[in-house]
Structures are given as C-alpha cells and as structure tokens.
Amino acid sequence: MNSTDKNERIEQGSSDFKEVLDAQANTKGKTYSDFLKLDELLALQPGLEDNSESLLFFTLHQTKELWMRVMYVETLNARDNLFEGKVGPALKILARIRSIQQIMIESWSGLATMTPVDYLSFRDKLGSSSGFQSPGYRKLEFILGQKEKRFLIPHEKSPHHHSELKEILSQPSLYDSALHYLNRAGILIPKDRLERNWAEEYTFSQGVYDAWKTVYEDTETYFNEYHLAEVLVDIEYDFQLWRFKHFKTVERIIGNKTGTGGSSGVQYLKLAIDRYFYPELWEVRGVL
Ligand code: HEM
After folding, report:
1. CATH for 52-287 (3.40.190.10, 1.20.140.10, 1.20.58.480, 3.40.50.10840)
2. How far is the CA of 61 from the centre of ligand 1 (A)?
3. pTM value?
C-alpha cells in the first residue's frame, strides 16, 4: 500500500468514526446495556472491593450455568426434531451444542490458574454450597439421557428446582428420541425401549445394541443414522472431557480434601467419569 492509499484509508476510518459517534449522540432507543441488562448482570458478581479470586470463581460458575441453559434448550429442540423424523435440523442443532461444549471444556483453564492458597482465601464463604446442587447441570444430564432419580435429593430444599427437575425426568431424553428416529427409519427398536417409563434410568438393551450394529455394518445405506450415532458419541465424549477437566482442576486446587457439598471430593468426581449416557453406542465399537 503506498502512502497516498494509506492516508485515504485513515481519512475514511475517521469519517466512519465520526458518523457512528454522531449517530450515537442522537440515538433515543434502547442502549446495549439496557438490552443486555448489563447493570443487573454485573450486580450479580462480587464487587471490585471483594477478593478477585472469588470474582473468577463466580464468573466461571455463572457463565457455565448460562451455557448449560443454552445447551439444555437446544437439546430439547434437537430431541423434538428427531421425534418428528427431522434428522437434518437435529444434526444442525447438535453441532451448536458441540461448539458450546468446547467453550465449557476450555473454560477450566481459567480456573486452573487458581492455586490452593487463592481458593482458601474465600472458601469459607461457600459454606456447604456445591456444584452438586446445580439444577442446570442435572437438567442437562437428564435431557441428554442420564436419568438418576437420586440426584433430585439435593434439590429438595428448593421446590421450584425440584419440581422442574422431576418434570424433566419424566420426559423422553435425546437418546430416547434417537431410538424413535431409528425405528421410524426401519431399524427396529424393541417395544420396551420405545414405550419405557422415561423417568427410569436407561440401561443397556440387547435389541438397541443390535439396531446400532445394523447401522455400523452398513453405513452407506444408513448414513444419516450412522452420522447421528457418531454425533451422540461426540457429545458424550465431550461431556466426559468436561468431567475429567473438572476432576483434574479440582484435584490441583483441593488435593484429597472433602468437597463443600460433603462428598469425598476428587474420588467422587472420578467416579462420575464412569457414568455412561449411551451404553450400546460404546459397546458396539468393540465388535466392528
Ligand atoms: C475451585 C473450583 C471448584 C472446586 C474446588 C469444585 C469441587 C467440587 C467437588 C469436590 C464436587 C463434588 C461434590 C462436593 O462434595 O462438593 C463438585 C461437584 C460439582 N461441581 Fe465443582 N468444583 C469447582 C468448580 C466448579 C465449576 C466452575 C463448576 C461449573 C458449573 C462446577 C460444577 C460442579 C458440578 C455440576 C458438580 C456435580 C458433579 C456430579 O455430580 O457429577 N464446579 N465440585
């Protein structure tokens, strides 16, 4: 770029700035802050006079709660599309969920900058509150397919969360709808899986395993079903990565201490990694 071009660019840039600033000076509508309710949002965080460690802790928890809500809503959308046999729109939505999972996984690196000493500077303030009581996390687990009634117990003290979670428990999950989709596509699923009590924990079914095996053995004929299966595995895989990073980040912060929620701490978090969402999809990989 010669110097005349460069000067013209700078002049153009300045006039763009002037235009936008003039427009802003005359604007009468909603502001960015009004629209996003920024004052209310920022008031939910520790103030600048508070410990900056707790600011980081709050920000990570609150942003994860917001993202989990988006993921929950989108899982409902994907589930409903699959029930209607619309695999294309469902896959598009699942791609969004996966991209949010990457943000969720990566955000642990922010918390990994917190040393045990940093954490101790505000740990007392947490009392017995714990991520174990996160309604957003449990809603997401339930709707993705991991239904465990016992996880309603921590919510008994907050009736609105408890009743919402109970309601979600009684609805079909994303996996239930994927099985309906398969059945509709002519890959027969046992009746006891199509009409099961949705509130019960999902357990391995030989008939469902056989159905997925049919898909994997002829991926050309069943390409959409194969694609869906792999995206479900992607979602579970990323969920497990999130759990693993939680476990490792917590280990570097609290070592083998017990958790604020009363669990054994990292031992409990390690156990969570062995909880599977879609058992047949993992089992079938070993026989191909
Ligand atoms: C200093 C940071 C953190 C520590 C030391 C920590 C520690 C723990 C521990 C020890 C547990 C087991 C239950 C208990 O006894 O409390 C737990 C559970 C949990 N935490 Fe964290 N955590 C941290 C950050 C986070 C963040 C940022 C989130 C994001 C939402 C989160 C979400 C959860 C969830 C959802 C559970 C329940 C997991 C399950 O039941 O499988 N934690 N945490």
Report:
1. 1.20.58.480
2. 9
3. 0.94
